[in-house]
Amino acid sequence: MFYWIYDIPNEFLAGLICLTCVLYTWSGILILRPCIFKWLGPEPGKNEFVTGFLSAYGVFYGLMLGLIAVATYQNYCDVGDRIEKEVANITALYRDVSSYPEPERSNFQNKLREYMNHIIDDGWTANKNGNISPKGMLHTSSLQKDLFAYQPQTKSNEILHVETIQQFNRFILARSSRLQSVTTGLPDILWYVVVIGAMLNLSFIWMFSIDRVSIHLILSGILSLFIGLMLFFLAAMDNPYRGVDGITPDAYQGVLKRLMTPIP
């Protein structure tokens, strides 16, 4: 996968992919037009045969492209759900540790605040590059060490501590689930199938025998534009963290600002 495309804003990426598809189709039409007329004859030529073949091929390619598009969009939505789940668990965990006595309360709150700052800054930068920062594990391990070392002195604190441990475990599971989504995406082999399939699909347009080149270019341009938009959709949705317009850590920033920022 050419990850450099994610350095381009979505609107320009869409234009680049669509323009490439249109130019590919138009170039083939203009270059091969004399040969097509020689092979297939003037209009209508063998258009009926080409149409039937294109229709059969388009059904298989369109079905594959549609299924991949649905799966890619579902993966994009799943990433958002995993982020929301981790944020919800962090919020609940922070509220639990806020009921501890001092100095444990401030210690636990500070460690969660440090983790959130790490996610927003270093952690998210690494995720946008398809990597996972090891510092996140250090923050969670430090919190776990102090949390498990705490000895409740009262019955109420013991009940609170048990609930906090359970909430911490749910947070760790949510974090692990989200990190797994950082590197998920369509396999490279499948991208080759999609791209080569698009090129073959557009190549069939070259085979039509149409006397008026303007009509040929307009009709082929419309189809090329649509296929380009579908390829852009797959690319934009495939790696949710990547790209100028990828998923942002707004959910973490919101919790940090509303809940974890000390009131002066």
Description:
This protein is an all-alpha fold and 264 residues long. The chain has one domain (10-260). Helices cover 77% and strands 0% of the residues. The chain has eight helices and no strands. The protein has helices spanning 10-40, 47-97, 104-128, 135-149, 155-180, 188-205, 213-238, 250-260. It starts with 9 loop residues before the first helix and ends with a helix.
What are the key terms here?
mainly alpha, single chain, 0% strand, 264 residues, 8 helices, rod-shaped
Compact summary:
The chain has eight helices and no strands. By secondary structure, it is mainly alpha-helical.
What characteristic shape results from the CA principal axes? rod-shaped
Give the DSSP E fraction (strand runs of 2 or more residues): under 5%
Overall structural domain count: 1
Let me know the largest β-sheet.
none
* Arithmetic mean pLDDT: 87
Estimate the helix proportion, in percent. over 70%
- Separation, N- and C-terminal Cα atoms: 48 Å
Roughly how many Å is the radius of gyration?
27 Å
Order of helices and strands: HHHHHHHH
Number of helices: 8
Question: How does the SSE layout of this entry go?
Answer:
Elements lengths: L9 H31 L6 H51 L6 H25 L6 H15 L5 H26 L7 H18 L7 H26 L11 H11 L4
Helix pairs in contact: 1-6, 1-7, 2-5, 2-6, 2-7, 2-8, 3-4, 3-8, 6-7
